[in-house]
Specification:
This protein is an all-alpha fold. The protein contains seven helices and two strands. The protein has one domain. Helix 2 runs antiparallel to helix 4, helix 2 crosses helix 6 and helix 5 packs antiparallel against helix 6. The C terminus is likely disordered.
């Protein structure tokens, strides 16, 4: 199964790209709601809303896969700047390919910001500067471009302001893998 890439997104027919964009937007809506700390542990209305959004996503996915059965929709774990940037590039290209057939990817942009916020917290760097509230595909494209630039900056060892973010010593080469983490063996201590 192939990961969605800009190249694959460009190969889709505009109608298929628009339908895939709707599926991905529905998924992002559910994931953003699921991961929102304000409602994540909510019962009653919060739980019902999460369930409703999940069912909307599953329904959209079922419809898409019934119409386009040969297209797989795997998604890498989006936990590194490189992966988030690649995903944002694919989402941006998908939106361009869908054109006016798709709605602006508000929830996909929210997902991109949520993912980068987690990475920023983990790495101890500044979060992506949010775009001014805008509407439409142009605003979404600018927001995705900002996320891509932020991720690319981290991948190059710099944050959006140009400050070095990796102040650790270079990692050794272990068994041919550059950057492999060498762990010391665990030693049980007597109590």
């Amino acid at each position: 199964m192939a990961q969605l890439t800009p190249h694959i997104a460009l190969a889709l027919a505009p109608d298929q790209a628009a339908e895939l964009a709707r599926v991905m937007e529905s998924q992002a809506c559910w994931e953003n709601l699921r991961d929102d700390p304000a409602v994540a542990n909510a019962h009653g209305p919060g739980l019902r809303e999460r369930q409703r959004r999940y069912e909307a996503f599953r329904s959209a996915l079922t419809g898409y896969t019934a119409r386009y059965p040969s297209v797989a929709l795997p998604e890498l774990t989006l936990n590194t700047p490189q992966r988030v940037a690649a995903w944002c590039r694919a989402v941006r290209t998908l939106g361009e390919r869908a054109g006016t057939r798709a709605e602006p990817p508000v929830h996909l942009v929210g997902k991109a910001y949520r993912l980068t916020d987690r990475i920023a917290a983990r790495l101890g760097v500044e979060v992506v500067v949010r775009e001014e509230k805008g509407e439409g595909m142009d605003a979404a494209a600018r927001a995705l471009d900002a996320v891509i630039a932020w991720c690319d900056g981290l991948s190059a060892g710099r944050n959006a302001t140009g400050s070095v973010v990796n102040d650790q010593a270079p990692r050794p080469v272990v068994a041919g893998f550059v950057g492999a983490v060498v762990h010391e063996p665990l030693v049980a201590k007597a109590g």
